[in-house]
Fold this protein.
Amino acid sequence: MRFGFTPVTLEAHRIAVGVWIELPDSADWSHQGVSRVIGFLIEGAAQRGDIIWRLVAPSSLRDKIAEDLRTLAAREGQDWTLHCPPREEPLACGPVMDTPIGPPEPIVEAPLESPEIASEQSNPIGLTPRRMGQVLFLAGLAALPLLLLRAALRSILRAITTRLRLIVRIARDPVVFAPQLADAVARLPRGVGSKAARSLRVWALAAQVPLPAADLASSSAPEPAPDLEPAPNPGPSPELPAGPLDPAPPFRKLAKFANAEVPVLGWLIPIPSSRGSSLLAGPRAVLFPDAIPYLMPLGWADEFSQPEAGFPLWRAFTKRTLEEATTIITFSEHIKRVQGPKFFPPGVPVVVAPPAPPDLSALLPGAASRRAAAAVLRRHAATRAWRYLADFPFEDVTYVAVSTQDRPTKNVQLIVGALARLIRQRFVDCKILMTTPLRRNAGRTDLPQTVSDAGLDLDVLSMPDLPRDVHAALYRCAALAVHASFLEGIVGTLPFFEAVSVGTPCLMADGPHVSELLKQHALPDTVFDPFDADGLADLIMRALARRDALVASQSAVLAAFGRRNWSAVAAEYAAAATGHAFTAKRPSAS
Amino acid sequence: MPSRVPKIAVLLPPAPQPNVVAGALSLVRSLSEECGVRVAVGLPRTAVDDWENMASCFRASVMSVSVRTLTWTELPRDVVIRMFGSDLDVPSEVSSIQVPHDRAWSFADCSGWILFGDTTLGATAWLRPAIVVAPQLAERYTPAFAGQQDVERRIDTFLSWRSARAVLGTTVADRRDLVSYAGMHPDRVRPRPPFDDVSPSTGDQVTPAMDSPAIIWHPAYPWPAPATSAAIAWREYLETGGRLQLLIVGRHADAVASAPSVSSILDDCSRIGGRWHTRSILPGRRLDRLLDRARILWNPTVADDSHWLVARSLARGIPAVVADAPHMRDGLQGDITSIPTLWTYPAHDTVAAAAALSAASTAPTVKGAPLLPLRPDFTPAVSWRETLDALRLHASDA
């Protein structure tokens, strides 16, 4: 399947906007962070009906992204498409056959043969079915000893071939597999592999940085993909990298594929450090959510502070990408005011486009009762083999929902500290159910150890990587949601809007993002000091005592924010990316 | 005895606490005398002495009550399925199941099961229908085990409880714990009927010399963490002029007093003139006599069955000093601050505990104290007969 050269495709009135996803193969594409924003943008476009988002991503992420986007209230092929280059390494057992899940397959990959071709070649031997049956019977008898031997050895052979195949793949592409190997090594008991894992991660990050041009020209310059035809609308030529800030080879190939196969009017770059985006043809709007490690440099993984691999490199990448942008989009005035002077080049227009408050109520089943939501959670827990939660009375248990990643700025440990005080000192029956993963021996976080040391293993429960409807159900059954982050890029916090949209109040830690929200709306009994676990425990007790009043006051704020919807935000982003002027529209039923 | 009378097995876990043995004895008496059912009691060998001591005054019919020793054996799940059939109602992730084993097969014809304690891993799947008498989930309130909590085993226990007909907790706070912490469905969690005061004294023990009034501290668990804060509170009491000696009483008295973190503080107390002793006696008339001669009952723990002991103390007009915890508030009737012989203080506040001990030791004795200030929910209005509805096994049904 191949698109035409006109940027307006499928439906004549839709403007095609590219979305450049430059993430490593090991990236976790779950319902959080950038992926959450992209999902909302797609649903906003679906409400308008005049935008189609064309996502370009590495092949390794294709299945994860497609599975996630197919849960959206949007139509694949009309509101969004996903484009990935063909996989370079087909499995040894035969060609990869992609089985579409749900709608017809609009994902562009290697061209597939039409089924009609195979049918035209039927019966080339000229035997009747009866005769062929006899031949096959005899052949089967002759092959019987071999088949029996194979069956006897199958378990051994399968184990050997599986591991050999994995070893060969690792040997072919060690950069891609290095992070996974590092994770596996880091999980060894007693931390014996932590040093090796750190070295492996550092090496992998360093290996993704392009070597100097002289080295590349001499030996290791990757060959251009032979199966890609010349770009009909070529942008800047993906030449060999000339410096450490040039794109990595895999993303140069991805950019070449995008220019050749994905015709759009402009590009949205949701990750500002995406250096591969500099090779894209057409205007580019770079989304700059925040640069939080600039303000909170401590507590990240060790390699994150290394100049050749970590945040310094991210900062250099981001500054270069922003210099080459047509437009910069940011979520809030405080990010523009605080971090703009450090990152935004003069002359590049900056658009402050706050995200619309997400409304999760449409994701809940039936009348959105707690019982129905709890059933959703139990079903999902059974699917994921979380045996303690598979039969858990979510609707009857008082718990705090925490939806965030495990990062130094997210301050999840404060919530755990407050819970310990509630249980141990004030005898309040309460739990934390969070989407934050608890990975033992991860090496970069103390959260799992903190939970274990406090004996809270059955009171702080992790439910990571939730689908959107289950995520909404987690909020719905919660007594409260709490978000303790020191700083966010948006106005307020996403958990605040998500939780309140399903009728659950949310408490937030004070910070510039909350201050900007409080300038517009008063929120009593909602904000706490991000350094004060006792204060948070007090606030949780007060909020539990007057939950209904809190829901009412916070719902009023949500209603005020709700006048800005994702349809308008999608139009703003698309306009920033393409320069096309979109008219204001009421959300359509599509 | 007609054969149609149902037979109910009452099984105790390995190494049961003395209060568990006393509770089981009370239950067996109620079942046989009030409910008219036959009872087969399964005791681990270590609990036989405790049982016989307590049951010396209990003249049950041999026909209605049979006592057998048993062993809890942890068997792989597939072995249990081969032994007892494939219809085990147990999650497939549970790899091993506890099976009670007795040589005489005394429980082969039982039609209902009552399991005591939290070491009945997986047994509810095999013993059906079953009622679990849950102990207090005290580890939730104490970072006990110093991070050594066996989470997987705890999950196995909770999953086992969830497949029981009912889980019996003691107080309203217990019920909340069982729902929130253990994940029980609230409809299956019921208040536990009170155990009758049938436990006699362990008469073979030497009468302690009680020349002067004392503070009685009855630690329910041998965990050092709460005991340490209690010892600190007593030191604070001595440093602020307190004179009463301390009697650490109960099965775990020696274990608590010899814990390194506790013993060092008790040594400090001795140096500043405090006298303390341990008495390994069980709840019963002997303890009641000790209470009568003591001055104060002190209950510093925050989650255990001690509200029964507090109630017995108050019934005798003995002042009680207790940490203010939900289990205590829910177990005692009315506003506990209005009980004249009861002093409460914020849990974990050692200074407040010392002040409460001082106040109680100087207060005049109050006559006419409430006889048994337990909440109506836990009075005999809720009987074991009603509780057995969960098993649907009444003699009257037979």
Summary: The first strand of chain B starts at residue 7 and ends at 11. The CA atoms of residues 339 and 369 of chain B lie 8 Å apart. The longest helix of chain B spans residues 18-34. Chain B has two domains: 7-193+382-397, 214-375.
